[in-house]
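Q: Give me the 3D complex with pyridoxal-5'-phosphate.
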Amino acid sequence: MHTLPTPYYLIDKSALLRNMAVMDTVRELSGAKILLALKCFATWSVFDLIRPHMDGTTSSSLYEAKLGSQKFGGETHAYSVAFADHEIEEVVAHCDKIIFNSIAQFERYASHAQGKPVGLRLNPGVSVAGFDLADPARPFSRLGERDPDRILAIIDRLDGVMIHNNCENDDLERFDELLTQVEQRYGQVLQRLKWVSLGGGISFTAPGYPVAQFSKRLRDFARKHDVQVYLEPGEAAVRHSATLEVSVLDLGHNGKHLAVVDASTEAHMLDLLIYRETAALGSDEGDHQYMICGKTCLAGDIFGEGRFASPLQVGDRISIGDAAGYTMVKKNWFNGVNMPSIVLKESDGSMRVIREFSFSDYVDSLS
Ligand SMILES: *Cc1c(COP(=O)(O)O)cnc(C)c1O
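A: Here is the predicted complex, encoded as structure tokens.
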């Protein structure tokens, strides 16, 4: 297992399939269709594995829509905060539904939809989000339309709406409250639609999540408003299905034991920095605590702290947890640090390298 050179993202097929089993259950119990949010995870080599358990993909740009239609298939939803004139024809050609972020974009482009179903993003102004950077209901938000009257004015030309106002929400009661507020405020809108996408951000694959009650809430919503419900999980589809495998390059002590590894938060797990989170690493036990640091020159390039059973040595391998969502889609060449390969761990434990990067990829990313 330790013969592959680090760094690499290690995708665990069995862990991914565990999440996919939950997708199957929710689809079956609720009648909802489930689309993978490509902005979270777009590692297309494992789409074969995901495809039987999800209905398609949702996108936030032309390129994601193209990737979804070419590499995943099924149903492709195209959404973007703002489409441009030069891309709209190609977006429409690659999607099954197009969802506009504003009434202005809808008015500008709905006539280009070539008969495909058209939707609008609705922003109910309430949300679950722990960080205002990721809160669609933040003050002055540009994400979606809020006013029921303005939406009702174009309702005859709308087939559906998309609402994305949850973020890592593992509390079914809170989800239910938010959905109830949507039903109260937008009741007249909902009864005129064919489909409603409830977005992503619902942690329904977390251990202990009440999947059956969640599914029932979705089914009741669908029946009450006579709509097809969609979910757009990103994180929930891939949670705990990958690690970032790194090696210790150097050790030091400056008030704490420090271990520098051959990867970087900023280049390879950027969300740790953006959301000021620490990585899952080491174990809860072990007498030897280390701060695990990245190898870029950014002073705060720190994965987090972990406990280890014995003192770390140069060359030791460390596994950094929960490295599937919002990692590979965001990786970059900061500091010219070598890009982690992508490795798939098959159900029988064998490892398959599905992508390696080299100096020429770095060169080709610039000019
Ligand atoms: C980000 C996003 C998702 C996926 O969110 P997760 O938190 O990864 O589940 C789904 N839909 C829309 C519109 C999004 O912006």
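A quick observation: The pocket of pyridoxal-5'-phosphate is lined by residues 37, 39-40, 58, 79, 164, 167, 199-201, 232-236, 325 (CB under 6 Å).
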